Amino acid sequence: MNERAGERGADPGPPGGDAFLTVTDLHAGYGEARVLHGVNLTVGRGEICAILGPNGAGKTTLLRALSGMVRVRGAVRLDGADLTRRPPDAVARRGVAHVPEGRGTFMPLTVEENLRLGAFVRRGRGEVEADLERIHGYFPVLRERLRQPAGSLSGGEQQMLAIGRALMLRPRLLLLDEPSLGLAPIVTRELFRIVQTINEQERTTVVVVEQNAHLALDVAGRAHVLETGRIVLSGSAERIRADEQVAQSYLGYRV
User: Fold this and answer.
1) Domain ABC transporter: where (predicted)?
2) What does the domain layout of the chain look like in residue ranges?
3) How far apart are CA 107 and CA 151, in angstroms?
4) What is the Cα–Cα distance from 119 to 71, expressed in whole angstroms?
5) pLDDT in tens, 80-110
6) Which of 5, 55, 147, 225 qualifies as a cystine partner to 9, CB 3.0-4.6 A?
């Protein structure tokens, strides 16, 4: 797909030019291994943006770079604030919540303890208590499991807990890494429905890395296709879905 990356990969930017997240010439990796090679992308305020690409393309590394978990070169700006090379706790204090691949749940802790950990950078006990009720509204099953160890939950319930914990931060930017991994299709569809509701009701900007390209494009307004550490295609979800090479490589049909 990268034969015409320079022509096809240019990011047209969010509608109306309201860029909330801006990534410029981002390089990142692990030790001597470079994974991202000059990534440029924008995400609009209040939109759901999908990051698509094959295994090994650098999608997880991109989210880790955005949340301060790996060393980077380039620039990451959120609502005008420079997040480049800030540590994860400082990035979280700027309103960035990251739900990693594998969920990152603290298995021995109870559901309630996991949720409260999500509010670690916040002040005000009353607000935290109110937000626990807010999370229960999105995920009623978590209210029923509050005293249970997180490790006793099903895979779908653990993913709900991971997203709920992230929402306890009251994030402005929510990063989701492979939320459908290992889940039944019906559970996956419900999770994405809830993510859409959160986006619509709270205007939380969402960046989601997802192997299920069909589902990601159903909920996203725009998408970026990442290949070998470079953005090779950016645009509206409709444009990405209609691209012949994307359709063949990720969606399983010919345009």
Assistant:
1) 21-253
2) 2-251
3) 4
4) 25
5) 999 999 999 999 999 999 999 987 889 999 9
6) 5
